[in-house]
Amino acid sequence: MTKDDCFLLGKITKPFSFRGEVVLWMDVDDPAPYVGSQTLWIPQQNMLVPYTVETWKPNKDRYVVRLADVLTEAQAKSLAGKDVYLPLTAMPPLEDGKFYFHEVQGWAVGDLESRALLGRILHVVDQGAYPMLEVHFDAGADGYIPLPDHVGVEVDRNGQTLYVELPDGLVDVYLGGNDDGDDRDDRDDRDDLDGFDGSERGRSIG
Question: N or C terminus of the chain with fewer C-beta within 10 Å?
Answer without folding.
Answer: N
